[in-house]
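Q: We require from you a single protein entry containing the residue sequence and its fold in token form, and nothing else.
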Amino acid sequence: MGIIKRQTIQSSVYTYAGVAVGFLTQGLFFPNLFSKAQVGLLTLLISLAQVLAQFANLGTNGAGGRYFPYFRNPDRQHNGYLFLTSLTTLVGFGLCVLGLWLARPWFIASSGGESALFTDYYYLLIPLTLFTVYFAVFDNYSRLLYNPVTGTVLQQFVQRLLILLAGVIYWLGWVTFPQFLGLWLLAFFLQTMLMVVSVVRDKALFLHRRFLNLDPELRRNLTRYAALTLTTALSSQIILTIDKVMINSKQGLGDTGVYGTASYFAAVIAVPATALYKVSGALIAESWKTNDLENIASIYRKSCLNQLIAGCLVFVGVAANLPNVFRFLPPSYEAGYYVILWLGLGKLIDMATGVNGIILNTSRFYTYDSLFFVVLIFITIAVNLYLIPRFGINGAAIGAALATFLYNLARTLFVGFAFNMQPFTWRNGLVVLLGAGVWWISVQYPYPAPTATTTRVLLDMAGRSALITALFGGAVVGFSLSSDINQTIGQLRKRFL
């Protein structure tokens, strides 16, 4: 667990630095800089590009997480793994381009009013998908070589800094909106190029087919697993995207912009989980190879507890400060208040169940995860069709939280029955109670008056956040709820005191 703890902490530090930049950019700057429709355009482009990138990869990243231990051999250039996944992804990207060309008439027919802006920039999806999928290929490869930090730095911090810079250039009036979109795309391109440079620096850029020689059994297993993980990854991305697509179709790009901004605030809660998943995947796959169930169970148990602690702290901080946050947004964005809470609750549920998906995906029962996702797509669509017409963007957020709960419940129960792994203890329940108690205390203090200055509001946010951190963090350490957290604090105390 030591390498997981160290790299998760490193990744989280860089990620939260990126969160600060992203909060300034996506949460405050862009809503005041662009129209709601323009913000909705950026949200929709990114969401659809992520779905297309999952398809373009054709499941090779997921298969690599399971079978890379059988490729791992630096002397033989890891048996051509990078060449294989890069070539397969190129074929998948070609299919995406063809699909986009064929689907354009349908998008034009289904878009109108504000949504017509999307059809004007429809083909930006092609370069955006290309940059997104090849960043994922090289980031996944680097992660399999036990270097998850570089990709996190580039994606969570560098990319967001470049996007902020593009926004500043537009704000200064130096470029038009179409030219801004070119700079925005450049941020994704540079992120990908820097990821490739990192692999070159690590002397792992092996793109020669000379060592590619798969035995028939490994080829069959790899192909079958790639097909199933493609279904899983594509389904998961569709579930994350379908709400925005349906809001755009039924409510327009304006509401999509509000929902996208609100979803960014909720995504902040899941930052530590993103870092953990990148670090733990390769180690769990290695543990399955040696049948080290004890190590897998330990990772599972600690991931559930530690991610719940981190998630509760951030969720309570976000929820308690929302009245202050909305003072910095245009009045039309107040419709996203409860969207943030519902989406944040979904993220918290996902974190509380730890690495159940990674355990299932890397086990011999990986086919069931694909089945869960396919069923969940239909549930999500049905729930959104019912809730969005009645509750608008709040209905979409409720549907997303419900889908997340059902999916993680199914995975947790399956892992429990199949491998006899039950990660929850009384500590997990106490963390939830502490979070609820700290939230109640933090909202008892009056918020600044509507006429208060910006400085007064910022001081209130800082003080309220400090109170939450002190109460919640102090209780977690005082009750010794997490041995990893107490051990880390002890090491910091020895180092600095």
In short: Residues 216-250 form the longest helix (35 residues). The chain has a mean pLDDT of 84. The two ends are 25 Å apart (CA to CA).
